[in-house]
Amino acid sequence: MPVEAKGTSPRNAAGDPLASRLVDEYNLLGVGVSGHWLELIRRDLTQQGYVTTAQVLAAPEGARVVVAGLAVRPHRPPTKSGRTVVFFTLEDETNLLDATMFESVYHSEGAVLFTPYGRLLGLEGVVQRRGGARAQLLVEHIWPLPR
Q1: DSSP 46-114
Q2: Coil, strand or helix: which one is 27?
Q3: Among candidates 40, 31, 48, 50, which has minimal Cα distance to 11?
Q4: 69 within 8 A of 107, measured Cβ to Cβ
Q5: Per-residue pLDDT reduced to its tens digit, 59-106
Q6: Which residues does 44 contact at the CB level (< 8 Å), separation at least 6?
Q7: Rounded Cα gap, residues 49 and 146, in angstroms
Q8: Is residue 59 within 8 Å of residue 66, measured between CB atoms?
Q9: Nearest residue to 123 (alpha-carbon basis) of 147, 141, 99
Q10: In which region does residue 117 sit, left (phi positive, over 0), alpha (psi from -120 to 50) or beta (all else)?
Q11: CA distance 23 to 41
Q12: How far apart are CA 9 and CA 36, in angstroms?
């Protein structure tokens, strides 16, 4: 399915040469190789208080963060308790971040995660590190962007 510049690329990107290249690349290759969609709006996101996934990965255990990105491979594996747990990766122009959303958040806000590919999301949560492992985000709130 072809990507259209209007309405598909992030707002504030109209007329940006990177936006045009990304649209062409997605239409021809199915992937963008010149950059990432979030590069087009990073300045706005930073002004609104969003950090990058790389900054989340460097944050200390327990830090509260607000981050934006594209959700990759959300899945709800069966659990022994029968409760819903959703795992996904959040992608931005700097890195990938593993995220976990528990049932209470999933039922109240999580439907936005299972929408067509390419949905830009905002997440608020707490950084967790278990046993010195790579940081992950425990999601407390999730919303579509622009908000």
Answers
A1: HHTTPBPHHHHHHSPTT-EEEEEEEEEEEE----TT---EEEEEEE-SS-EEEEEEEHHHHHHHGGGGS
A2: helix
A3: 40
A4: no
A5: 999 999 999 999 988 998 888 898 999 999 999 999 999 999 999 999
A6: 12
A7: 14
A8: no
A9: 141
A10: beta
A11: 15
A12: 10
Domain ranges of the chain: 11-40, 43-144
* φ, ψ of residue 123 in degrees (nearest 5): -130, 145
Q: How far apart are CA 5 and CA 12, in angstroms?
A: 11
What is the pTM assigned to this prediction? Answer: 0.82
Q: Looking at the structure, give the CATH architecture of the domain made up of residues 43-144.
A: Beta Barrel (2.40)
> Residues 20, 13: contact at Cβ < 8 Å?
no
Whole-angstrom Cα distance, residue 80 to residue 49? 38
Res 145: pLDDT: 87
Residue 118: pLDDT above 90?
A: no
Q: Cβ distance 64 to 126 under 8 Å?
A: yes
Task: List CB contacts of 59: < 8 A, sequence separation 6 or more.
Answer: 51, 65, 127, 135
